[in-house]
Each structure stands twice: as C-alpha cells, then as structure tokens.
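User: Before I run my own analysis I want an independent prediction to cross-check against. Here's the chain; please return only the structure tokens and, at the end, one sentence I can use as a sanity check.
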Amino acid sequence: MSYQALYRVWRPQQFIDVVGQEHVTKTLQNALLQQKISHAYLFSGPRGTGKTSAAKILAKAVNCEKAPVTEPCNECAACRGITDGSIPDVIEIDAASNNGVEEIRDIRDKVKYAPNAVKFKVYIVDEVHMLSIGAFNALLKTLEEPPKHVIFILATTEPHKIPLTIISRCQRFDFKRITAQAIVGRMKLIVDETGAACEEQALQIIARAAEGGMRDALSLLDQAISFSQEKVTVEDALSVTGAVSQGFLNKLARAVRERDAASGLEFLEELLFQGKDPSRFIEDFILYYRDMLLYKAAPRLEESLERVMLDDDFQQLSQEMEPEELYELIGVLNKAQQEMRWTNHPRIFLEVAIVKLCQLEKTEKSGESADIKPLMQKIERLEHELTELKKNGIMAKEDGAASAAVQKKPQRSSRKGFQAPVGKVKEVLKQATKNDLIAIKSRWGEMLDRLVHNQMRSQAALLNEAEPVAASETALIVKFKYEIHCQMAMDNSRFLETLANVLFELLGKRIQLVGIPDDQWQQVREEFVRNQRDGEDAGEGFSKSEEEPHVSEAVKLFGPELIEIKE
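Assistant: Structure tokens:
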C-alpha cells in the first residue's frame, strides 16, 4: 500500500510536535539537557494523546549522535534507524499480546547484554496494564535496578490497574486530553501541508468529536477528506462523526423552550430519517444543555464547552432559560439515556423524553416561587386571625374582665401553635461556649447572602429579625422575634438542610439549628441560670472558689450584662 493514514504520516518526530503536553515535554527536555535520565518512565493518559510518540522521541534523543540535546536531530544514523525501526536496540513490546511471565523473563535475560548500534537499549512497553501479576512480579527487580545502558518506558491508558510497586519505581508523567483548540491548530497545519480544503467549522466539529485524542481527530479528518468531493464541509464532518448540527439542536431546544411538542417530534423524525443514532443524539442533547449551563455560569470559559459553538441562537436561548430549568431538562434526558441502554427500541424512549421536555411547567424562578407560595398562604391566614382578634378586642371593651380573658385567649392559642424543644435547648446550653457563638455571629451576614444566592430569599427573610444566642460545637440556638417566623422556619426541612450545608461550607462542621421564639427564650434562659444557681446552693461543703466556675460558665454563655447573681 502506497497510502498511509494521516495519523501515521504526521506522527510527531520531535517534542515540539507533541501537542498539548507541554508539562511533559518540557520536563523531559530539561532532563536530557542536564543528563538526568531516569532508568524507568511511566506515561499514562487517554488514547491518542502522544504517549508512544513521546517514548520514541525520548529514545531517539538519548541515542542521538549530537546528544545531549533537547530535540533529536532526525538526521543522524541513530535517529533515522529508530524512526524506521531498523535498530534492534529500541524494542517496542505490546503487553496486550505479550503479557505472560515467559515474555518478561526473556526480557530480563536479554537486558544484561549491551546495545549493538546505539548508546542505550530502550524498552517501550505499550498497554503495560495488560501484564499479568506474575509478569509484573518478574519485572520488579529488573525495573528497579536495570543495567546502566537500559531505559524502560511503560505506556498505559489505565494506570490504576498497575501495581503500586511498579509505579513507585518509575517517573510518572500524566498525559492529558488535548483541547479542541489545539487539535484544530494541528489539523490546520496538516491541511495546509497536504493541500486539502476544509472549512474551519468542520475542523471544529471533528475536534470536538475526537474527545481530546489527536489520533482520533486525524482518523476522522482522513475519513472526511475521503468522503468529501472537493472541500470538507460542515455537512461532511457531521456525516462522518455522526454528530447533530448546531442548528438542529438550536431548533429542537427552541421547541422545548416554547413547549411545542409537535415541532419537537417533527424535528426528531427528521433527525432519525437521516440515519442518526438515538443514543448518540441524546448524548449530544445532554452536552448541549450542559454547555448552556456552563456558559451561563462562566461565559468567558469558551474552551470548556464540549459540544456547542457560540452562535446567536444559542446565546439568545441561554439568556431566556434559568439554571433550575436546565437542571430539570438534563435530569429528564439523563434518565432517558439510562433507560435506552437496556432496550431494543431506544427511539421510543427518545420520543417520550422529548414529549416530557415539552410538557414541563415553565418556571422563571422555580426555586423562589415554590417557596413563596406556602409563605403567602400563611401570611393570609395570619392576617385573618389578626382581623378576628381586633374585632374581639373592640367588643370586649364594654367588659373589662371579658376583655382580659379575650386578650389572654389568643396568647394561649399562639403558644399552642409552636412550642420550642426546651429539652434540646437546655442540652445545647450545657455544651455552649462563647467562642462558638462568636464564630457563627461573625459569619451570619455571609450566611444570609449565600441563602439568597441559593434561591431561598423568602427563607432568608425569616432570619432578618432573628439572631444566634447560643452555640455549641454541634448545635446553634436561634432566637426569632415572632413566633410565626420560628414555626415557618422550623417546619421547612429543605430550608434547614440548606442552612446546615451553608454553615458547613463556612465553618467546616455540621451544626444543627434549634429555633425558639423570643418570649420562650427569655423563660428558658432564666430557668437555666436559676437551675445552675440552685445546683450550687444545694451542694454541701463547696467553697466559694468551687462555686465560681459555674457562675463564670453562665457569664461566658450569656455575657455579664444578661444575668444578675444574687446571694
């Protein structure tokens, strides 16, 4: 065959050609220049990111006739021989097919012989994680103390499968996924050199479909060039990669936004008629909404977008949608994707998912509206009770005794409305310290701001006239000015969970919230101080110095201005 695939023709021959791995190539170049070559290296990372290519370049650089150099010259006999594979001292081993103990023992026996043609004998073991446990054990001692003329370079896509005893004997370099921008730059260079015509948007589609692998990108580019007539267009790239066009995703997302199920199903029918895979499409649609969510959170991080390009339709649609709606859309699509994996009819689940998306209720600010609705109902009920109370008060003016009874009655009923957990409050007071209270008070304003940021404005409003009055290592007592506010806060489990999470983020520990109305707090506090004092008086044989720690504990808890000590 006279024709070679692009990824073979354009395999990097120097470190500068290894795209997106500057953290690796720079380290290796400095080691080469300073002649600090290790006896064993481990290159790990996703497929097609340059691990084997970097290993071959390193083998050429250490054996180059012009060494020490940062780049192989690719002109001397050693460099040319290693490139074309004619030098037997650079041995490439596929561990997937040579994973037994006998193969490794053969390496161990031959490693002691000096190289024939170059200075260093280099063993490049690809997919090293495929070796058996016995093979790894046979390699251990040789890998730790090989002869001075031997270098081992191990390459793997799954480093977690390699024993730690092997990893600890190597210098490890982690290759990362190549960014779409870097892949596009490399493909532009190749296209210009080969004379092929490609649209830049087509190259971007290919780069995003490659998922960070340069070899995958070049294979797709090679296929697209063969598929196209004269110039690789966007349609050619979409056909080769199996991806869905940005315009189609925009149209479908617009139909979902406008709750137009008929248009959504019509677009889906058109997509499936073109032969697109339902599983691939739903993955693209999830990534579309994922990119929209990231774009709303950080518009400047364009490189973090995996699927979309920032056209006008996408930007306009992202401005109209709220994050809560995107969370719900992604959740529905993700559930449908999981169900599609276990069925012979994925199209049905895809159509049902589109109908579900089009039937979701529109929520401009769903989190806030859901919280305000019960609050408004409670406010209306409270206003009604207040009106009735005023009527009863006016009628009772004619009879003083009856008026006093009427005034006391709503007080008793309101007390029945919410009773603070007195036992729990006292347990917190026993463990409370002034330092814990100061720590919470110092972050109280920041906590309210975070509640507002978490779309819980109505709950944060309940805390505007509340204040922390005592705190221990694990609990916090909050005094509410109004009893109805305390009841509304304590009955809302979502609010309590969010508040606990916010306090954990601010203080680094889980704290339980205990709410108590102002009037009940005064009674509990006085009773607690009185019990502390009575306990001191009941003890016999206690000196004044033994009593003072209890008093000082109460002062530490409430402050000297809040209590009065009587003999």
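Sanity check: The first helix runs from residue 6 to 9.
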